């Protein structure tokens, strides 16, 4: 059917349709402009107001100021939760109380978003955003946070009786000196509420805008140890009690363990099944430490401090700790019962200290060797020289690969540097010689280096046996300018030498970090003994006629040697035999005369030839 009039052409129809479309477009444009103008006017003239048709969590806040909106939200949320937070458990609905301090709506953030509508972004965005809101509305969902700690407290306060942890079965032993009772306290299944799941369910409920009761998901937890696991152990526990009383001992301390004390220690293993009996370490440790308190001491860490030049200026020596090794002692007790022992040893353990401060940076952790020598009976000046030598060697730091020189460390041996003279025989006179006693320092360092497994690069024994340096063959003589005593630090870290004098004992300690090397040193063997020659008398005018002054008592000559082996962690083995030959030493005495009748033979009993050194 043709609806156009006969007189109307197709071009006229197209023109009419085009005009209609233009009119519709103009109308829509006018409508949008009107809405935009209205909303723009709202946003422009009422800058403290939220544009109309904005909601937050379903609550209308359009046209309100931030303060008014905040109060409206607060009232609405209170109304939404006026029944409180409700949960369902065992077909019962229980209220946990108000949502205050449990549900936190981020209204501040949501209001900030609402306030930006029509005010933020480009001009077109500011224009179109209110129009979109006016046409379709805008519901802003605030971020919801659940305070899980407070939620758990509410659950505990309201429904705490409904939940409990599982409980393992327990072997209960009650004993006196004459009787005992052993029973099993049964296990219990636990009921556990997953707070994380509850918090998530509460968040979803808050987001849904409905106060619906939340079903609680209760999980059952089961005991790791059941009555069935423990009942078979009752006969074994009765048999263990028969071992009391028994004796525990350590060093010079002994005491009896009674049945009641033993009953308190007996427990069951929990790591593997079937379960077995064991001794519980906490009560056993308390008992053992009380009994051995005089033998125990806490570990004390040391410290090294260096100055700006890298020299050690302070050293706090670490002290090894001593404690009871409870696990080893428990095993010792059980093993002792099996072998029928009535006296069982308590095991002590040594606790290695650390060296803090610069010690950690230098890699100095522990004692790697100690050298000792005795100087009892030394003259006063010799003792003072030994003390000075020990002081100069003490606090010496040696870096990796560096060689230690005793003469370099001691410095110039003269009165200006504090050394005291010792009288020695030179020619037919007694002459003061500085540094008498320094070989005590060299010998002690030699022994410390040996104990540390450090390579000895220069060492010479005395020409004569000296009583201060027994056993023979373990001495090292030094005399300026030669001979010297040297060794090398072949460890990967630094080493520190500390020294101390304890009575008539000189002690040198080498600190560093052990690298697994093992040192073996045989006992010194003395052979080819040669008797001392007759006393030698030298005339002198320095003494009254007939007066005699001797240097030392006579010493026999001999050869001495010991075997020395260092086994390194890589399996490399270095063996060396240290051999020493000592000349026989005759007593040399000066005798006063009025006139010399014998020529002075130039005998020099100093340095390596003088036992006083």
- The portion of residues forming beta strands comes to 25-35%
Shape: elongated
Poorly predicted residue ranges: 1-6, 41-45, 603-613
Identify the strand order in the major beta sheet. Answer: 23-31-30-24
Number of helices: 15
The percent of residues in helical segments reads 25-40%
Largest sheet: 4 strands, antiparallel
- The N- to C-terminal Cα distance equals 143 Å
Radius of gyration: 48 Å
| Total beta strands | 38
Structural class: alpha+beta
Mean pLDDT: 87
Provide structural commentary.
With 613 residues, the chain is an alpha+beta fold. Among the domains are: 233-357, Ubiquitin-like (UB roll), CATH 3.10.20; 363-609, no CATH class. It is 30% helix and 29% strand. The chain has 15 helices and 38 strands. Strands 23-31-30-24 form a 4-stranded antiparallel sheet. α1 packs across α4 and α2 crosses α3 (107-116). The radius of gyration is 48 Å and the shape is elongated.
Topology:
Blueprint: H1 10-45, E1 54-56, E2 59-60, H2 66-80, E3 86-89, E4 92-95, E5 103-105, H3 107-116, H4 123-136, E6 138-140, E7 144-146, H5 148-159, E8 170-175, E9 180-185, E10 190-193, H6 195-207, E11 214-215, E12 218-221, H7 227-230, H8 234-241, E13 246-250, E14 253-257, H9 259-265, E15 266-268, E16 277-279, H10 281-291, E17 302-306, E18 312-316, E19 321-324, H11 326-338, E20 343-345, E21 348-351, E22 355-357, H12 358-362, E23 366-374, H13 380-393, E24 396-398, E25 403-405, H14 406-410, E26 421-426, E27 429-434, H15 438-452, E28 456-458, E29 486-488, E30 495-502, E31 505-512, E32 518-521, E33 525-530, E34 536-540, E35 548-550, E36 557-567, E37 573-582, E38 588-592
Parallel strand pairs: 1-6, 3-11, 13-20, 17-22, 34-38
Antiparallel strand pairs: 1-2, 3-4, 5-7, 8-9, 10-12, 13-14, 15-16, 17-18, 19-21, 23-31, 24-30, 25-29, 26-27, 28-29, 30-31, 32-36, 33-36, 35-38, 36-37
Helix pairs in contact: 1-4, 2-3
